[in-house]
Amino acid sequence: MCEVNKDLLNERDKCTFDVKALTTFIDGGPERTLERKYREEIMLGEKELTEGVPEEYLSHKERYDDGIRKSVIVFGLVRRLQEEGRSNITNYRDVMNGLLGSSSMKDGSALGLHYIMFMPAIINQGTEEQQAQWLPRAWNCSIIGSYAQTELGHGTFIRGLETTATYDPETKEFELHSPTLTSYKWWPGGLGHTANYCIVVAQLYTKGQCHGIHSFIIQVRDEETHMPLPGIKVGDIGAKLGLNSVNNGFLGFDHLRIPREQMLMKHAQVLEDGTYVKSRNSKLNYGAMVFVRVVIVYDMVNYLSRAVTIATRYSAVRRQSQLRPGEPEPQILDYVTQQHKIFIGIAACHALRLTANMLWETFHAVTEQLVGGNLQRLPELHALACCLKAVSTADTAMYVERCRLACGGHGYMQSSNLPMTYGTVTAACTYEGENTVLLLQTARYLVKIWQSIDTTDTALIPTVAYLKAASAADFYAHWENSVEGIIKGFQKVALGKVSTCVKNLNKRINAGMTPEDAWNITSVQLVSAAEAHCRVIILSTFYGEISKLTDAVPSAVRLVLRQLVELYALYWTLEKLNDLLLYTCISELNVDHLQFQYEELLSKIRPNAVGLVDAFDIIDGILQSTLGAYDGRVYERLMEEAMKSPLNAQPVQESFHKYLKPFMRGKL
Q1: Residues belonging to the active site
Q2: What is the model's pLDDT at position 74?
Q3: CATH fold group of domain 142-282
Q4: Measuring CA to CA, how many Å separate 183 from each of 167, 205, 239, 552?
Q5: What is the pTM of this model?
């Protein structure tokens, strides 16, 4: 075993809490920690995952081929865990957040969408018969699926999709067709050359009438030869900023015919004679999209945990400049500006993880209510998933980029794993719903709630109940420099922004503007209102969950978690001062105190910084970073990785003799 960097050893020695106890809390209990470690042991036992040339040196095709090789190994472990009884289709959260979170595949997997969207779509939208037919094969990976919704010409606006599915009662078949170039499906992960089946979202036509978008199971490739089937044009869309192993594809149909039974009919049906049976609620068809947005929030936590681990450990090892003349160069983690860049990311990992847990529980509670015919909380769930997906991805992209910048030039190296991590998380800002559009969907829900708030005597559903309380005249007469006070302040901001939006919408409509034009011209304010609402959700959930901790969690762990809650609240208060000054009674003196509190809190967290990221317990085989390894041997690892470059395989390149030497001698 290599010697650990002395600075990192010193950091670990001065940690004030039990790192393993915090790890257990993060995992959700000792059993979950053991289960995670078991998965990681299996994962890293597969030496083939770490062999070969680093993927950043591979061509686009080589990356895909190597990605498939690794994916087969990784997802083969799902089968192994299933055989051992450790994994099944009912504990989907553990499969997604556990095994996939433990993956050592930096650039994503072409099989990811099979688990994230293909199977959930069948679970949420398929009948019992359809689930019995398709799920066992999908779970065993005897078929590989993708999910095709987005088209070249339309993304988040799914009502504008152009792919058609027209029912023919004579043959009892649907005819799938791509009438234009812009109707080609574009972006589905794994669809390029990996999946042989796909859930396709298309406009349903029967008896000459369009019934909107519905989902269909389509076989894309032959199960034996893997050749595209007649009537199908499919391929890879090309290189991207990141996730180049995911094999995002395009898909077009030329009058492809499929059996009637391959329309997912849990919520809406087409009978044999072509009669359309409408769903109880059209939003029931969006269950798979809501599910994947829940998964995305967890995914952001996984990536952010890696980024802050890398940046914090590197900052403890790296020494630079002088704080005082004549003294040794300090660790850059001693600079308050460095702490300001990194510590908010550590706090956000906990805030987003606990909020993701809340979203997951809400998703399941609402799903159970739907089974019983209760649709009351479905709009709330949709609005909640939209804003949390948008804010968590945007925030994580910002935090990860700060971590990269905090590592200086070395953070620009692919071997740091920060550029690839940033490329991955920034992609999440647009896939599965572009963030601005999602925030506008949340805003639409908030506007409806506010418009009816004075006409209902019943209690509001949980996540918007604060709007009614905060509207009381005596709700918050004096600013309080506490986490509870900050949460109330953010509630007032959200309330103020929503009510201002409604007032401006009404003013414009009353002046003769159409509701659509009024909405468009007010949309910047509406996005801001939705974000403010989401800040309330994250802050109150983070504070509420940590406040509920009992003696089962050691006092030193509870203390450092409370410090992270306070840091998170103070950071966002200082970031959103304009809003707070506009909608609350915060004063200049309050702001001065908050700034002082924030800086003081950074110094309190500083001795525990390395311990806090060690508690994420991300082993080197998963972290895959020259800057963030547990032993802190940054410079040795940077040189080792540099020597893996194909350019270093020989001292003189052919291009010297072919191009450079003739040029230097004036003979080119």
Answers
A1: 432
A2: 79
A3: Butyryl-CoA Dehydrogenase, subunit A; domain 2 (2.40.110)
A4: 19, 16, 21, 56
A5: 0.91
